[in-house]
Amino acid sequence: MLFERAIKPALGWFLLLCLSGFVRGGMAAQMVLHEQVQAQKIELIELDERERRWIRDNPSVTVASVQYPLYLFQDEHGHWTGLNIDVLKRISAMTGLQFVHEESFSTDQMLERLQSGAADLSTTLAMNDQRKAFLDFSHAFGGAGWVFVGRKDEPAIQSLEQLVKRVLVLPARHALEDAVRREYPSIEVLSVKTYAEARALVESGEAYATIENEIGAQLFPSGLLKVGALVEGRWEADHLAVRKGMPELVSILNKALGAFPAAELRAIRVKWLGGVAPPAPLSLWDEVVGWGCWGMGGLGAFGLLSLVWNRRLTAVIRQRCEAEKHLGDQLAFQHALIDAMPDPVFVRDLQGRLVMCNRSYEEALSIRFEQVQGRLLFEVDALPEATARMLHDEFMVQMHTRKARFSKRQLAFKSGPKAIYQWTVPFYSADGQLRGLLGGWTDISQRRTESGCQCPH
């Protein structure tokens, strides 16, 4: 009886929290449904004669696009998708503009295309003083903070002061690079091409930290990395960046963003970022509920002391099952994310045996994972034998040196020679032990063919 009196209040609080979760889930579902309904009856916004004439003369806008998962990326069919794509589709429906995407492979390359006039627009560039010299920025339609990413075995980085006399690695022309060099000259800033290279240098210990968008940092968990604090006073607002000399386009975009229904924009962000965005700060009511739950949990724990051993064992088993389910959900998400990548990706163990690959890898080599799992590259009739043995030897040397590798090269495939951009990085367990190699490649020849590029390979 004492147990029942102690546990009933705890159960009441538990049911209240569950009901709150269902309500929030229902609200998110209603917002997505509202978005789908509204998409069928979008009306054109009112534009002046100068803006309408500009659209008639320039019906297509070229967008320089770097793959940035959840915001902007290509699905397994090669179609661009993500939060920013949904925003552009809504703007297209309101204005009649058509957006044509051309892929870039780094922030530096994207900025060069905008400066040269090869592209008109970007959806993933943060604003800074250097970029304002050759770009105009639309009104903001969202945003996220910048966070420090450092090694797991080091103290969590809380401020730029902790990086004094240390190496900070950033992708070339990063939005914060100029400010860091100007305000903290004693920080050694190392430039690389991509965020993947920056994370790899932090993992290997060649750099102490990097700085990344807080949403992006949550998407790439690693046993050797951990996310630190927000960079104080630095906020990455979401803008549409337009090259200078196109004031009509900036005006059109601003009018479209101004007419964008707030509920629909919120629904789009929930659709793409709801599952990975960092938790929002707790309100006073949330804290009260939390302390109340802790209190009820204490009473429940006191009541549980009166249970017999078999009931305690049942509770432990149930908790373990829930933990296994949670882990299974995480693994399922990671597998889905890897399979969604348009480029081939693979994982090999310390002996070079295949542990995992995505669908693009299977399609590129005309194999099935079930048939080649646990086998060495030259044991599979997927590549010319000389190529397979050369790559296997490179993998073994790389796992011995534990260095990340990024290179453009020409390789012989069954279908003939191809120009590729190859990357391979060692990965580690949670306790810092080398577990194998993660790698993949981008078929530069295919990208050039699809884009109609006639430049020499």
TrEMBL record:
It holds the Pfam family SBP_bac_3. This is Transporter substrate-binding domain-containing protein. NCBIfam families: sensory_box. Belongs to the bacterial solute-binding protein 3 family. PANTHER family: AMINO-ACID-BINDING PROTEIN YXEM-RELATED (PTHR35936:SF19), MEMBRANE-BOUND LYTIC MUREIN TRANSGLYCOSYLASE F (PTHR35936). CDD domains: PAS, PBP2_BvgS_D2. Residues 337-375 form the PAS domain. The chain crosses the membrane at residues 288-310. Keywords: Membrane, Signal, Transmembrane, Transmembrane helix.
